[in-house]
Amino acid sequence: MKKTLIALAIATAGLAVVPAAFAQSAYGNGSWFVNGNVGRTSIDKGPYDGHDTGYGINGGYRWTVNPSVALGVEAGYNDLGNVNAKNLFNGDRVVDRGKSQLHGWTAGVNGHFNIDPKWYISARGGIYSWKGHGMESGNDNDFVRHGIDKTSWYAGAGVGYDFSNRVSLGLNYDHYDAKKNNVDLSTDMVSVSAEYRF
Asked: DSSP labels for 132-144?
């Protein structure tokens, strides 16, 4: 499975790099970037039905295709299912062991499309190597909790504002597919993101 994940990541990166490399020489330079997002996650599958606080951190490189379009590759980490932010201030457990505890690594492609000099829309997608804790119905309708992991996919879109060539803020919607053995931990997240390009 790890070899498949590595091969898919290399192939995805290669597909994005080749056309973008030609575009870079014609239109200008690209840039490295790092971004982070925090938001509200949503899951409504089986014994899980609710909202939590999720976060992610991501980095990569984008090539400038033309003055309004940049395409790139990215990799990152997120935690989508077990953080109770309100407990930061009351002494209770911040990481709730009763939650799905969905977290994982992402690798994919992304795009940054300016619709005017400051406003942009974004899109992203790729593979999601995740781990979580799921509950299955056992004998006598008792729920059995166990750790699961798999490689699946993620995709998302957003809108935002470029404060400068280096800094932007955005609002995003992302879906992370996480299904295995009749357990569905697939999670949606609406988040606010900040990005720095260098």
From this structure: EEEEEE-GGG-EE
